[in-house]
Amino acid sequence: MSSRFFEFFCPVKVIAGKAALEHLPWEMQGLSVKRPMIVTDKGIHQAGLLEPVLAACREGGVQIAAIFDDVPPDSSTSVVREIATLYRDKHCDAIIALGGGSAIDTGKAANILVSMGGDDLEQYSGAGILKHPLRPFFVIPTTAGTGSEVTSVAVISDEQRGVKLPFTSSFLLPDAAIIDPRMTLTLPPHITAATAMDALTHATEAFIGLAKNPLSDAYATAAIQKIGQWLLPVMNDPKNEEGRLELALASTMAGIAFSNSMVGLVHALGHATGAKCHLPHGVCMSLYLPYALEYNLEYIREPLGELLLHLEGPERYAQTPTEQRAESCIAAIRALRDQLHQRCGLPRTLEETGQVEFSQLEAIAQLALDDGAILFSPQEVSFEDAHALVCRAWS
C-alpha cells in the first residue's frame, strides 16, 4: 500500500483540551475578525452550551455581532438564506458554527452565500464549484461523531425540490476547530452512543476501504483505539471529562481519516435508510456496520483482523489466532452494540428502531446503489446483495 500513489490533506487547525474555548478569540484576532456571528440550534442554547462560548469571547475582547439559534435537525436552503441575510444586516465578518453536524453544515453553506454573494445556494452545489477561499469560519462541535469540523463537505436540503444538495470543496474546511470536553458533557446517553458508533464506522470504513492509505490508517486506528477504550466508561460516567475529550478527539481523527480515504457500504445503506425512514445517521451506522463487514469479509480479512488490536487491545489480539481475528473483530463490535443497547436502548436491528417497515427494505437497497459511497466497497454490490444485507439487518 505504501508504494501506491495517494493524497492526504487536512489543513484545519485543531485546538483541543479543557480550556480550548478560551483560545477562540486569539484565533479570530489572528484573522482580523471583529464581528463574528454564531450559528447554532435551540437545543444547544437551552442546554447552556452557548454561554461558555460567549464568556470566552467577552473575556478575549471579541464582540459577537449576531446569534442565529434556530438551525433545525435537517437544515434547508431557506434557513441558510435567513442566516446570510442576518449576517449581512449585522455587518458580520466571520461565522462560528456551534453544534452537531446540522449546525456545522449550515454554517458551511451560509459561509458560501456570504462569501460568494447572492441567495441561490444551488448554483454552488457539487464538487469543485468554489474557486477561492471563503470568509473566516470556526467550528465548535457539541457531539463526538460526525467529524464535520475537519471535512470538506456539507449537505443541505432543498425543500422545494425535495432533494439533498451536496457541497464539496477544500474551501469549506474551517480555519480552526475547537475541541473542548465542556461541549459534550451534557450529551444524553443515546446520542453519546450513536455518535460514537458513527465515528467508529468512519474510522473502520476508512481503514478497510479501497482508498485507504498509510496516513489515513494512522488516524483511523488511533480513533478506534480511543473509542474502544473510552466509550463504555463514558456511558457509565457521563461527566467523565477525560473520556469526553478522548471521544471528541476520536471523532475528529476519524473525520480526518475518512475525508482522505472515503467511506463505503455502511454509509451507502445508512444514507438510504436515513432518507427513506428518517433514522438518525449514527443509529444507521451502528445498525449496518457488522453486516457490511461480514459481506466484505473475504476482501478485508487482513486489515479487519488488524483492527482487533486497536479495538480490544494487545492481550485479546495476541490470544486470538491470526485466521480468527477478523471474525473476532466483528464479534467485538456486536458485543459493544449489545452493551450500548443495555445501557441506552440503542437499536441493533432495523426492527428494533420502530421506524422502519419491512416493506421499505427493497427501496432502501435500491437507493443505496445510487450512493457514491458504495463505489469504495471492497466487494462490488448488486441489488440482490444489498437487499439480502438489509434483510439480515432487519431482525
From TrEMBL:
Keywords annotated in UniProt: NAD, Oxidoreductase
Keyword Repressor assigned: no
Gene3D superfamilies the record matches: 3.40.50.1970, Dehydroquinate synthase-like - alpha domain
SUPFAM superfamilies assigned to the protein according to its UniProt record, in alphabetical order: Dehydroquinate synthase-like (SSF56796)
Top-level taxon in the UniProt lineage: Bacteria
GO molecular function: alcohol dehydrogenase (NAD+) activity; metal ion binding
Cofactor: Fe cation
Segments forming domain Alcohol dehydrogenase iron-type/glycerol dehydrogenase GldA: 11-181
Annotated ranges, domain Fe-containing alcohol dehydrogenase-like C-terminal: 192-392
Similarity comment: Belongs to the iron-containing alcohol dehydrogenase family.
Name this polypeptide is given: Alcohol dehydrogenase
